[in-house]
């Protein structure tokens, strides 16, 4: 898997977690622990996205 593909997959998962958090917060039956766990996972994904971006070669200007 290329770094670009891996980055795209991480960003897709990050968006899915964002949507899940929004739905959980809007739901009257959501619990704080579940929302906190989703936010923790989202933060871990954000950190991983940054690590991948830092390892990618800089684009060249031609």
From TrEMBL:
Coiled-coil region: 3-55
InterPro entries in alphabetical order: DUF465 (IPR007420), DUF465_sf (IPR038444)
Top-level taxonomic group: Bacteria
Pfam family for this entry, one: DUF465
Keywords assigned by UniProt, alphabetized: Coiled coil
Protein name: YdcH family protein
Source organism: Bosea vestrisii
Taxonomy of the source species: Bacteria, Pseudomonadati, Pseudomonadota, Alphaproteobacteria, Hyphomicrobiales
């Amino acid at each position: 898997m290329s770094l670009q593909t891996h980055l795209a997959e991480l960003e897709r998962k990050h968006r899915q977690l964002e949507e899940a958090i929004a739905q959980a917060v809007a739901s009257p039956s959501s619990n704080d622990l579940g929302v906190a766990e989703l936010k923790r996972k989202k933060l871990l994904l954000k950190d991983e996205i940054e690590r991948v971006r830092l390892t990618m070669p800089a684009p060249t200007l031609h």
